[in-house]
Amino acid sequence: MNHATDRGPSTTRERARAERTAPAPVGVVIATRNRSASLAVTVRHLLALPERPQILVVDNASTDDTAAMLARDFPRVRVITLPVNRGALARTHGVRALDTPYVAFSDDDSWWAPGALAAAARHFDAHPRLGLLSARTLVGPAGAADPLNDLLAGSPLGTATDLPGTQVLGFLGCAAVARRTAYLDVGGYHPLLFFGAEETLLAYDFAARGWGVTHCPDVTAHHHPDPGPRTGRSAVVRRNELLTAWLRRPLPHALARTRDLAADARHDPHARRALRETLTRLPAALRARRPLPPHVERAARLLDTVNGATS
User: Is the Cytoplasm keyword given for this protein (predicted)?
Assistant: First the structure.
């Protein structure tokens, strides 16, 4: 007796049809606020992907026409509207709402290359310890390589036999894919950081829980940031870097980084703002302080040495 029909699609055409109708294993979460025009471009690129991923937009309390634009032009895209701007925590709302095993993150000015999400899913399928994957990022219409690509590819943490790519403790938020269970296991982005260099702390948390974080350049994301100035961005980044030190690093390291910022604050108004905001949030950081396990701290120190950070 021929039992071929009991084993699923048996012809090339039937298999292709099954693959087209099967749900994609990677969903996409987009955090946005008041950028409806660039969001529309992002959504169009994501809807055109051959992987046909679920797309979920988390709106950080936009006051422009974001909600109307999505309802009018993209009725099939899921939307969560937050009552207040929650910054990077919007991504966590999206992860909780999706049911795909893997979740890719886009901002309202970034999207994924065709085939990138399928490549990411293959890495996660083949490496059960992989918690988060950092992609190669191409910037702007010319597709210039983001300098972060080389920095991540050259990570001194090297490779691991049970992980793809190079081990890292950092990534670009709009060019990352996470295992959903791992992301929820570590709790997602920290509420103290909002936006700006918030990725390092999340990478620490993945590693502290035993999940691998790697850079895989065969997975590609496109980023089209606004070329205009980002007023105050440097202060926010320095604030979050310092809060990350207080949340997870040894006290001598956090104190040294604080002294560095205080010295800069004497002549730099952005540093003064960063120091002031850090001190305001420091009590909450101390209450939430959870030092890194020794093996992760050793990796962080190795990266400090390469990057020239004080310790």
Answer: no
